[in-house]
Amino acid sequence: MHSYDEDLTQQVMDHLLHRLRLDPPPLGRLGDHQELTLALKDAIGPAPQPPADVLRTYTGALEPTVVSCDHPAFLAFIPGAPTKAAALFDMVLSASSLHGVSWLEAAGAVAAENQVLRLFADLAGLPPSSGGCFVSGGSAGNLSALVVARDTGRRRLGLDERAPVRIAVSDQVHSSVGNTLRILGVEALVVPTADHRLTGEALRTALDAAERDGGAPVVAAVATAGTTNAGIIDDLAGVAEQTRGRNLWLHVDAAYGGGALFVPELRERLRGIEHADSLVVDPHKWMFAPFDCGALLYRDPKLARAVHTQDASYLDAIHGADGDTEPWNPSDYAYHLTRRPRGLPLWFSLAEHGTDAYRDAVAKGAAMARRTARLAERTEGLELLREPELTVVLIRRTGWQPSDYYAWSKRLLAAGTAFVTPSVWEGETVARLAFLHPDITEETVREILASLLTGDHFPA
Ligand SMILES: *Cc1c(COP(=O)(O)O)cnc(C)c1O
Fold this sequence. Notes:
Bound molecules: pyridoxal-5'-phosphate
CATH class of the largest domain: Alpha Beta
Mean pLDDT: 95
Low-confidence stretches: 456-460
């Protein structure tokens, strides 16, 4: 099983080349549970099977039910649109079994990942001493960062390691932060927002009230640079003023909006991000890296090391037990140990294309969102619900019920036009278009908007 097999290699490579050449890749279709169960019935047994047969199961039955996130008209959730360079280099990682846990095992890979993290830190305005690691995504980044925020906060207050503390979050914060707080056993101080944006003023009011309510001390605040549902950027500067004035940890969740760091006009809206004590950016979203790739940065990495470094005698070797190295181990900056150096495909693509190309590609998504907003405004029967700040456009189809939006979404996918899923805005089901792929055309957008108006496929 571990020796090179020319035939097997050729067959898999042929499939890869076929997939890479598809332009665009198929949007895909919904999977049928029974069909899939049938297709997989005898897939794994005690005896070997010819690779061509196994591949045929994959290409014939499994792959068609996987929606291509890199299709330009994938506008649901937050799309993923890896550059070809990044996607290709991801294969190098797998084929080389790169293990990115420590400097000892993968110095070159970790050094390249750190070069990318340095670029992000510089764009965000974090100090030269900042640093971190790549994790699987925003959820892993938020969890890893907020453990450090919690423990650092307790230490600053002289509390013991089980003392209850609170973390301030807005009522719009990403669901992964809610999960994180539950996992950490930290109570949320939920700050209400007017107009969906956390402001310094709202945080001030909530923190003042928290000082008097007899609850656990607040040790940190979370701000979002680009909410997932609507692309709204919190008042980072105002929030930072509060956290700095009160010696609280500021965590900025820029999982989706982080791409804006590349574009000067958009970067302007992130003013205040330079005050983050920890920052999460998902390159697998608006920075065109393959899944899964999240970047986690700390203003003061030694605080993260103090929390995350795992102590086991067999790990002494990676922690410079010989005393003459000062290793940078990605495993010291998040809750993970084994990890693929998933920042490396992004490093390769950034080096190959240059950062100007990233700036332009990021800007295209935002420009298309603005154009779509203008089109929606001008179209009878459609209502733009909010001016897009990043790349999400929320649109109401006058008179539609939730079921109309869901039927519309299914019809667009079945027709191979686009993958667009509805969302809820202020209690109402609406159409939500999340742009990201730089090659989406205005023609496709017009087609999607027109499809919102043709009600004939729907029961009255
Ligand atoms: C996507 C997203 C997350 C979660 O990131 P994953 O990579 O899916 O784990 C967290 N916060 C925000 C704002 C996001 O957009």
